[in-house]
Specification:
This is Methyl-accepting chemotaxis protein. It comes from Methylomicrobium album BG8. 84% of the residues lie in helices and 0% in strands. With 204 residues, it is an all-alpha fold. The protein has one domain.
Length: 204
């Protein structure tokens, strides 16, 4: 396996690991929003400003999970492309060696088509890999923005929670958990971006 292929496998494996964590954390945010909604309902008018925030947080978590699922599909595609590129590169190298070895043999020209076909497939894999990396980066940017938004909403929700009387502590605990989750998601996504940034198409 050549260096480029190893690099691609390492990057994809790293991304997959980070994304698994992000999905788990996003589900935690969704659960926190559900808990906050229940608390806000019990608090009634004291948490009137907090109630719509819980719906927004829940929707945001769902959007993040949807984006991560798309990113997971792209990461799987990158893995398949990398395997295909490796196999076709091996085939091309063998065809090239045979062509060189055959020299002026009678049927040496018959190797030209499989040689050209293998080369075209390798080049197509490389182009597809770059396209998928670019798409993946776009979705990672979206998740990063969602994480930032969740952090801002968490800060705002702490302010709203201050009006909730005896429910203040419970709501602030939820806000803190959302804020912590947002920071964790941001960190995981940044590690994905770093893993991809080694590729020329992933300019960041």
């Amino acid at each position: 396996m050549n260096h480029q292929t190893k690099t691609q496998f390492i990057a994809v494996a790293s991304i997959t690991s980070e994304l698994t964590a992000v999905i788990s954390i996003s589900k935690e945010i969704s659960l926190a929003a559900a808990n906050a909604k229940a608390i806000a309902f019990r608090a009634g008018d004291k948490a009137r400003g907090f109630q719509p925030i819980t719906d927004f947080i829940n929707d945001l978590a769902k959007e993040m999970i949807q984006n991560i699922e798309i990113i997971n599909e792209l990461a799987t595609s990158l893995c398949r492309i990398t395997i295909k590129e490796y196999r076709k590169t091996e085939a091309f190298n063998k065809f090239e060696l045979i062509t060189t070895t055959c020299g002026s043999a009678v049927h040496a020209h018959s190797m030209q088509k499989p040689l050209a076909d293998a080369k075209a497939i390798v080049q197509n894999c490389q182009l597809q890999f770059k396209r998928d990396v670019a798409l993946l980066m776009d979705h990672l940017d979206t998740v990063t923005q969602h994480a930032k938004t969740a952090g801002i909403i968490a800060t705002y929700s702490r302010i709203e929670a201050s009006q909730a009387g005896e429910y203040l502590q419970s709501l602030q605990t939820v806000s803190k958990s959302v804020d912590n989750a947002a920071h964790k998601i941001h960190d995981h996504v940044q590690r994905c971006i770093i893993a991809l940034s080694r590729f020329g198409s992933a300019n960041k």
